[in-house]
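Collaborator request, handled under Task 6.
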Amino acid sequence: MSAMTAASGINAFVGFRPQNGVKRASRVRASVARRVANPIVAVATPSGKKSANEGEKNWSKVEHIKENSDFLRHPLIEQLATEDPFISEDAAQLYKFHGGYQQDDREKRAFGAGKFYQFMMRTKQPAGTVPNELYLTMDDLADSHGNGTLRLTTRQTYQLHGILKTDLKPTFQAVIRNMGSTLGACGDINRNVMASPAPYAKNFKPEYAIAQELAKDVGDLLAPQSGAYYDVWLDGEQVLTVEKPEVVACRNDNRFGTNFEGSPEPIYGTQFLPRKFKIGVTVPGDNHIDFLTNDIGICVVMKNGEHVGYNVYAGGGMGRSHRNNDTFPRLASELGFVGKDDILYAVKAIACAQRDYGRRDDRKQSRLKYLIHAWGVEKFKAVTEQYMGKAFQPLADLPPFTMPTYHGWNEQGDGKLWYGVHVVNGRLRGDAKKALRAVIERYELPVRLTANQDLLLTDIDPAWKSDIVATLTAAGVKDASGIDALDQISIACPALPLCGLAITEAERGLPDINKRLRNIMNKVGLPADEQFLIRMTGCPNGCARPYQAELGFVGDGPGSYQIWMGGTSNLLKLAEPYADKVKEKDIETFFEPIFYAFKTGKNADERFGDWANRVGFKAIKDAQESYKGLPAAAKAAAAPAAVPASAAAAVPAGRLPRVMIEREAFEVLKAYAEANNTTLTEAATAAILKLKK
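Structure tokens returned to the collaborator:
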């Protein structure tokens, strides 16, 4: 199977209604044996290989680390107590479950000194909800224990970078004691549960509050229960948590053989899940969160204004590997409809099916999407129904989906306002960070984090609006209406220098790439407000969901990207791989013929992704090969759309030459760029142009 076949053969979301009219019984007889508190042995393995039931466990190294950890305690506790600036590899694997990664800042390595170890911490914020107290705590920690910046992720959480090992415990303790948690933010476990974050009042648009509440309940249901988290970070001190009785009842329900009886982890057992597990909850018509890219995608179903249940989908996931065609991105498949009282049991059943049958021998094949791809949807649904004790019903009808940004000023429906702030690739720093802190603290505002790495200031009294606008404007925080249409919806992963998997730039590279793409669009005569969805990652793991973009950049070498095209603006179709090894320095020559073909061949109001799907990759590549440059008439027509002279210095017409500078000068330049919330290119350009005066 080629990469393109793998992507296209299972990618398209086939609709919102079942494929046939087969009726199922409302109850399914459970045939799953009752479990006891011993390690999981029902491990799916490829045909021809010995099953884990038949002798020695065919497990990856990480599975043995989990098995011997006493439910995620050891050797992490011991490693945190050493004087080394790092923790062992086994401990680092366990640290993921507690909410972070051990990292190495490649740009701070001293000659001959080896790696510059530091740690990233990630929070869990179901539906992106952040209490005022926690926001202020995270802002403080970024300055006192991090690198001075706050990172908003594509899964509605915070990441705090640059924590030294000696500061880990105080950092975690501060988060836990200020209404936050990091437990399960990483690792082979249910991650942060996403939901459409718009803070509409319950009596105005109740479906949003329903989705957000379910995100919290699902997060509670699938949270680890052994207490290891508090043993590691609070030395055993317990923190009171409040869960709904129905959440506790679902977790403890073992009528259908889902639980490990007598285990500190009734759902997870000693082995937890085979791989990361992601869940997203949305509402009809709103696909802001890319809900079909999750292991479980859920959509609230309303009927005549009343909540009746949920549509459930399973098997989505973005991660893949270059040159490994057995790995691929996939959108979730439809399972069916469940009533509102059955949704927690459906989620638990899907997670338990993945727990017992997901592969544990090959981590590149361990996600739920590969189990469903191997089994087929009907077999997976049948097993899930056994764990649930009830059959899925046919999907409910849903309206068409769009991807709202939530930018700007909006009414909540309760007399209050919310304001959506665009944050460039999710990185809060410098004056913008200070100004946001000021208004959030001054008015005690709660915050929501979005799936597009943006920030929603909520519960704003209309009388506060003018002061908030003035404070943010003075700090250089632009309203989204004044930001280029490409930048408004583009996202990127952190990549270099901290992510150990990064091959090339993403967060730091995308702003300049967007400017160069806009320059090309202007040159070929596309409108100045032409918008399409651009996403960039520094490796193929897909954290910024580039395989859903109309134009995706996936790092495949130093200064090099694999190009994906054909995703749609409603995020219901995967992009497909178009070209490999496109050098960053060749962006202009590569994209000019494509954008000219788009400009001259698109239908009225047709977006880039839809155009690429309609004409096909062969026609686009033919246009690239036959392109001889802009005709004279096209050059003249494009002239009015040229970038204003005031902005020309900041927008390179082509790839600028590289210039070597001393380390001390680079650090000064970097500090200036971070303090002024700008890019290194813009900072260097401004500094050099001052020499002309």
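The cover message to the collaborator said: "The longest strand covers residues 306-314. Residues 1-34, 36-55, 641-656 have pLDDT under 50 and may be disordered. Please let us know whether this matches your experimental observations."
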